[in-house]
Write the structure tokens for this entry.
Amino acid sequence: MVIIHNFEEYKAFEGKEIGKSDWHTINQEQINRFADATLDHQWIHTDPEKAASEGPFKKTIAHGYLTLSLIPYLWEQIAEVRNIKMLINYGIENLKFGQAVLVDSEVRLTAKLKSITNLRGIAKVVIEANLEIKDNPKPAYTADVVFLYHFND
């Protein structure tokens, strides 16, 4: 894990990979809980029998938004940014879903610092994020995740 204390330490990673998270298994229970939370109970996610017999993947798949919702959890395994008053999840740009995540797949986040800009004391950070699927050459998604860090003086 990388520990960052200020704008200058963050800036040193610009154009470089910051790191990779641990592998995380997405199981059916997690998919079902996400379906309950979002009211998205489409059978391709929640009905293993129907998915096996009628689905294109022969298994249930994780919701795309479930995989996106893992960003904060996986990001915390890559970098700890200290000396901040506040962190704001500002946006996700250039999102492309590339591959379905089958139930019981292991995924991990890789993060590269695409850019960092000082906006009058607020650091706007753009992280090039890729969600890798273990033993699959194609990522689940690629995206530019934008954070705003309010560092202490």
Summary: The mean pLDDT is 97. The chain has six helices and eight strands. Residues 28-38 form the longest helix (11 residues). The first strand starts at residue 2 and ends at 4.
